[in-house]
Amino acid sequence: MAATHVSGRHARLDVSIDGVRITRTASDAARRHVERVYELEWDRIAGATLETSRKGRTIVRVAVADAPAVAKHRDDPYAIKVLRAEAGSAPAVVDLIEHEVQVRRRWREQAPATATS
Hints:
Layout: E1 5-7, E2 11-15, E3 19-24, H1 26-32, E4 37-41, E5 45-52, E6 58-64, E7 79-81, H2 90-110
Antiparallel strand pairs: 1-2, 2-3, 3-4, 5-6, 6-7
């Protein structure tokens, strides 16, 4: 079965048919000054990347089309530092997100243009 979630010490990222859900602990959300739960629909997601922190930890970052770019993962509300035990499933989650984004992009490109009258 494909990996559909990754967890960190203070956050969890879940991939579903509707999109991506990022859930943080109350203390982590307050420290970052972000919402506790983000529900991202597939139309808002531009992609996902896998990064490595200075200490070698795996970070999953979700790119959101209508959100400003953030340089540091600590300030990014759509980034999760993955537990070392789950670092092996992080690439599969990123690949799944990228695949879904590409499929939906192709659907939009190939959809017939609707005539307005």
